[in-house]
Amino acid sequence: MSTRSKSDPVPMRYCRDLPADPAIRRILVLKWSAMGDVIIATALFEDIARAFPGREIHLNTLPAWRILFEQDPRFQRLLMVDLRDRRRRIRSALEWLRQVRAGRYDLVIDLQCNDRSRLLIGLLGLTGQRIPYRLGNKRQFPYNIAPATLPRPIHTITLGRAALQSGGIPATTPRPVLHIPDRHRARARELQTTYGLTPDHYAIFLPGCNANGHLKRWGAARYAALAKLLHAEGLERIVLIGGPDEVDECQRIAQACDAWLVNLCGQTAILDIPPLCQSARFIVANDTGTAHLASVTPTPMLVLCGPTDPRRVKPLGDNVRTLQADLPCINCYRKTCSHHSCMALLTPPLVLQQLRGWLDPPRDETAATVTPDQGGSTGRA
User: Looking at the whole model, is its pTM more than 0.70?
Assistant: First the structure.
């Protein structure tokens, strides 16, 4: 017996050429958190916008990410509901349902794909406002368009691209895409002038991460040692960028170096960072959301991984490489560790060796050395 609903326009084969359907006029895209995942999803946003020219596309994300998209021409509306507040969970869910019902969408593309997003999309049907096309990453309720199951572990971009392709949406954008307002580009130029940052003559370090994931940090002493090695190699400036959780870490690095190190931690708005990264020779980063933000530029980047799996966390782009120690305990995702060997084995001289190809040759040549179809290389030390 078929389980297909009479009101469901899509057979349960889970595939459809959505861009060819003229009945799809209004689209809702869901992506809530975390920042790194939201940045990665901007490549998919670009694919969606290109596949549906002239259609009305709305983005449902968290209020914290409004600044990333408030001047984004891909979206005609930002639907903001804070679904993270546990004290207002039911009220927030009802508000989400109210706003989405009012939108009368023809297609919802769920790039969040967690239990909450599936529940909310499913509840829409019970309110009498079922969205005809519901695209997700699993062939299960409430989706009627989704890819076949893929082997794990898997990078979120691979899963997202497979989901779009199941709906006939070409997924070809190679790196994240953000639309940076002119005021942030002007602020980046101001900082470059103030601190003597000549384009292509400085490197950027992103030495922090969320305080709850401190094991992902390579460590202030190692970053300071690497900064000294790079300066001795002739690099004019090293720039530190970070947020409130990283002030102390950046301060320790700065105190161990001389005036050629520029500590911009706490001095940049979130969208000031990509223009600064655009002009850098290269970037060295931990597994942090800011590294994903930097990946909207083609600047070469090395991400140092320890307890997290680079197959899952690497920023998107063929200009990005990862380095990880070859240990049996890597990818443990633990919050505490007595030895932190995964980071200790990544010595500053070893990291310098990985960066040598980016110290001298033109950027186009170094970017071309990474295999594009692998999305950048993953190295083991």
Answer: yes
